[in-house]
Structure formats: C-alpha cells, structure tokens
Amino acid sequence: MAKPVSGRAELLPLLGEVFRAHGYEGATLSLISEATGLGKGSLYHFFPDGKQQMATEVLAEIDGWFEVNIFAPLRSSGDPEAAVAAMIEGVDRYFRSGRRVCLVGVIALGASRDMFAVQVHDYFKRWNDALSRLLSRSGLGARAARQRSTDALLTIQGALVLARALDDPAIFRRALSDVSERLLAPPD
Amino acid sequence: MAKPVSGRAELLPLLGEVFRAHGYEGATLSLISEATGLGKGSLYHFFPDGKQQMATEVLAEIDGWFEVNIFAPLRSSGDPEAAVAAMIEGVDRYFRSGRRVCLVGVIALGASRDMFAVQVHDYFKRWNDALSRLLSRSGLGARAARQRSTDALLTIQGALVLARALDDPAIFRRALSDVSERLLAPPD
DNA sequence: GACTCTCTGTACCGATCGGTACAGTCTCCG
DNA sequence: CGGAGACTGTACCGATCGGTACAGAGAGTC
Fold first, then answer.
1. For residue B113, which residues of chain A lie inside 8 Å, CB to CB?
2. Model confidence over B150-171: pLDDT tens digits?
3. Residue B8: band (very low, low, confident or very high) from pLDDT cuts 50, 70, 90
4. Would B37 be classed as within a structural domain?
5. For residue A27, what is the domain's CATH number?
6. Count of the separate structural domains present in chain A
7. B49 belongs to a structural domain
C-alpha cells in the first residue's frame, strides 16, 4: 500500500473546490480530472462509485472540519462571547471573507439536494443545535436562543450569496459583525 | 403572425421553473422540452440563440416583475412602514413562503454567474438602491440606510437557502418578519 | 386556391457526458 | 529478484449534451 489514505486526503479539498465552483451537475469528470491531475483510472480507483461518492466524501470532509473547528468549540464553551467570536473568526477564515462559496448551501439550492438531503440537513441542524444551546446556557430562553441561532446561520448563507452577486466581499465581513452583535445582544 | 409574442410570454415562466429547479447547467434541453411541451424546433424558433438566450430572457422577466411589484413601489412611496410591509408581502408571495428558490441567487452562486454577471449585479443593486433610499427619506442616515437595506436582501437570500436545506418554510416566514422589524426599527 | 409566414416534429450532427475494461507501471515486502 | 497489490493512462462504451437542417403543418391574406 503506497499511500492509500494520504493521497485520498489530499484529493478531497481539490474535489471540493471543483464542486463549489461548478455545483454537482456542473462538475464534470474532465473538470475533476484536470483539477486533480488524475485520470479516470485513478479517480475510479479512489472512488469506485464515481461522482456521487466523491461529493458524499467531500461533504463529509467539510462536515468534519466544521465539527472540529466550529461545532465542538461551541458545545464545550462556557463563555458565549469568546465562543461566538471564535465561531465568527473561523467562519471568516473558512469562507475567505466571502470570496469562497458554501458548498453545502450550493447543493441545498440545486436539484442534487435530494441526493444529499440527509447530509445537508444534518450539517445545518448540528450547527444550529450547538449554537442555540450555547446561547441557552448563557441565560437566553430556548425559543429566543434557537431564533437567534437560525438567524445567524441564514445571515451567513445570505451574505455569501449577496457578496458574490454584487462582487463585494465587504458585505460578508459586515454581515459577520452584525451576526456577532445580534447573537450577543442582551435579551429583549 | 399567429401568436408570436403571447406564446413567448407564456413560455418564460415555465422556463424559469426549470432553471430554478436545475440551475443553468442542469437545465437540459430535454428537461426544458418536457416542461414546456415544445420540441427543439419550436424552442429554437423562439430563442435562436439557445439556452443562453432563454436564461437571459427569464432573468429579464424576473427583473421586470420585481421592478413593477417591488422596486417601483419602494421608490415612489412616502410611507416607509407601508412600503416595507408591501415589499415583505410581495416577497413572501413571490417565493411562495420559502418553498420557491431565487433564480438570481442560484445563478449568483454557480459557475454561470460570469455569463449573467451584469444582470445579477443589476437586480440586487437596483433593489438595494430603492430600499435604502426609502429608508433615507424616512430620516435614516445614508450609511445606516444602505446597511439595513443590504441586511434585508441578504437575509431574504439566506432564509431561502436555509429553509430549503432544513426543509422548513417557517424559517423563511420568520426571517421576513425579522427583516421587517429591523428595517423599521428606530435609528440607533 | 395559391402564396406567405409562423410554428412544429424529427432526424441528425459532433462533442462530451459518466462510467468501464484492462494492460501496464510502480513500490513495497519477502 | 520475484510476486502482490496499489495505482495509472488509454481506449472504449452507450447515452445524452446543445445545436442545426429541413420538410412540412397550420392559419391568414389576396
């Protein structure tokens, strides 16, 4: 076994960028082949089930990144202010201040949503749960916490759309600072 | 001339739903043919430049609908409260309370953005201008007005993404009511 | 009834789609 | 050094892609 897992691990981010840029249906095998430098032979060696498996594993990798870098810290933190700041910072880095698009969001909007419905649903639900529980722990009512949390997630997604549509990354940065403020505002 | 323009007008909404559901790249000619009941012959009779022309005209039609039903009322109104309420109501109807996706947003996220960059940019810019000027007229500073307006647009887009991802239209309705509230809040 | 012009279905085009087959190359291990 | 198994490129598959060609169908005009 030469480098079975490590090669695969280096592959997923490359695949992710192709899916991000072209969506699931738009990401053709030849685009993927070009982006990775791998022929179909190698691609199908790593992913015997083809495109769908590639997308599934890319989504799982993204999910894993957020689990470690965003969700888990949210769950274990006792300091809402620091936790929210860390989340915002992580999100800003991940989305390159609005210049990078959210693959999970892209898939949610497209026809391939049904194919990946469970993964897409899970990703946002776990984020929402982790964030709203942090807010609850900090003294907010369950309903208000859930509401603020949902508002935060949707603002991030919308900011990515609008920043790209208007080609203005400042929209994303500003939206993140709004999110932070609304999340940490005193109870109504 | 049998019914040259009227047939075309009936065609565009059908085309719009196909692009909405599958994105630009995912909307194949056969999907379009099936949705409209028209063969390629007819399709290329109405749209000699093919798929790209279809999408361009669909975007123009959507733009026209928003111009008449959303942007113009925003521009001509002197009553911010009524104007915002009318906008929210129109948006809720148009997006079928979150069950329908925004084609302009879908295209903004995809690889076809570059192809339609001008139309996408224009759509959001004109909405943003109309809304922020309404807010300015009502006494808000230009900077704050622009900020609140941008926040409103991005919240609507994000709510569409999240409502679809979590398969929960209530997210959209709730987001609209938040938008309304933040738009009409007293100056900080 | 002949002519015009809008509209339509069908057959077809080369290119590309996602996927398969397979012979080879490389590397590690004994 | 020889075999095993991980990897790779190439040729190929049937299906479908977006688009074109074209012969008609149908309705309106004279």
1. 164-165
2. 999 999 999 999 999 999 999 9
3. confident
4. no
5. 1.10.357.10
6. 1
7. no
Instruction: Find the CB nearest A157 among B26, B111, B161.
Output: B161
Closest chain A C-alpha to B47 CA, distance in angstroms: 23
Q: Which two tokens stand for residue A101?
A: 């698009």
- The CA–CA distances, whole Å, from B89 to B84, B85, B95 equal 8, 6, 10
Question: Domain of A165?
Answer: 4-184
Residues with Cβ within 8 Å of residue B186, at least 6 apart in sequence: none
Query: From the C1' of D22, which residue's alpha carbon is nearest?
Result: B41
Flag if B153 and A158 touch (Cβ within 8 Å).
yes
Q: Is B103 on the interface with A (CB under 8 A)?
A: no
Q: Cβ contacts of residue A153 below 8 Å, gap of 6+?
A: A124, A127, A128, A131, B158, B162
**Dihedral of the CA atoms B167, B171, A105, B184 (nearest 10)?**
160
Position B136 in a domain? yes
Q: Is residue B27 part of a domain?
A: no
ipTM, interface predicted TM-score of the complex: 0.93
Q: pLDDT of A140-174, one tens digit each?
A: 999 999 999 999 999 999 999 999 999 999 999 99
In angstroms, what separates the C-alpha of A26 from chain B's closest C-alpha?
A: 6
